[in-house]
Amino acid sequence: MATARSSLRQRLVGLASLRAVSTSSLGTFPKRVKIVEVGARDGLQNEKNIVPTAVKIRLIDMLSEAGLPVIEATSFVSPKWVPQMSDHTEVLKGIQKFPGINYPVLTPNLKGFQAAVAAGAKEVAIFVAASELFTKRNVNCSIDESLQRADQILQAARTANVHVRGYISCVLGCPYEGKIPPAKVAEIAKKIYSMGCYEISLGDTIGVGTPGVMKEMLSAVMHEVPVAALAVHCHDTYGQALANILMALQMGVSVVDSSVAGLGGCPYAEGASGNMATEDLVYMLAGLGTDTVQWQRRCW
After folding, report:
1. Cβ distance 195 to 229 under 8 Å?
2. How far is the C-alpha of 81 from the C-alpha of 257, rounded, in Å?
3. Which residues have C-beta within 8 Å of that of residue 48, sequence separation ≥ 6?
4. pLDDT tens across 62-110, in order?
5. Do 256 and 244 contact (CB within 8 A), yes or no?
6. How far, rounded to the nearest angstrom, does the alpha carbon of residue 123 sit from its chain's CA centroid?
7. Is 170 a catalytic residue?
8. How many CB atoms lie within 10 A of CB 68?
């Protein structure tokens, strides 16, 4: 445990306050890039050994201390399907809530949303997929049915004054269907944006995308949803995550999901490797000439 904590601290050393990563010196890039840290949820959910609740809480607190602006804390999913997230209430209630940092949680259905709000969630995330087969294997329903479930959450969220982020899985490829038509991704993005998702994260769930495919997909989606409402979520199966993110930044996307130490995968997507490592993403942004606003070294 001590070795793991030391390794994590080394990886986190030097993370700037990623609330405002400036790329003003590069005219083709956004002036500000927001990083959404998903390690505590998307990163840990695929771990075979149950991570103790206290370790999860400490991880999130350390990420907060590093200055990350958004940290997805946990998932209010049934313990039957994702045992790793069975302590969601304890985690959300146990973490320190830093001023200016958002702590969204994943809610797969209305029951999960209600439990999340009861535990104190101020923001949630819903998810759908651009693949019928993936949707069937992941949540045991069709895409249309998953959209209906998402709409139920969004309606309840409006009443509860809770912000909702949306995920779309398999936007660049599916383990069961192969390549996904960009028009299909754009169609689904338009629907959940019109339902009320303030931000839509486009996920290369199995990491098969390349910059050319990313460009094609984003071009289609940007015809239906403002680029300011888009984010990318890239897995690194074939070492393409940074290249895909760079393409997205060049196209105007200014929100990127990543996971500390590259933790992650997908329990329902065979072959899905880890997420984009937060520290590698920060290193690339710094190499592009970004201006980091704060430099926090507490607890290293």
Report:
1. no
2. 24
3. none
4. 999 999 999 999 999 999 989 999 999 999 999 999 999 999 999 999 9
5. no
6. 13
7. no
8. 28
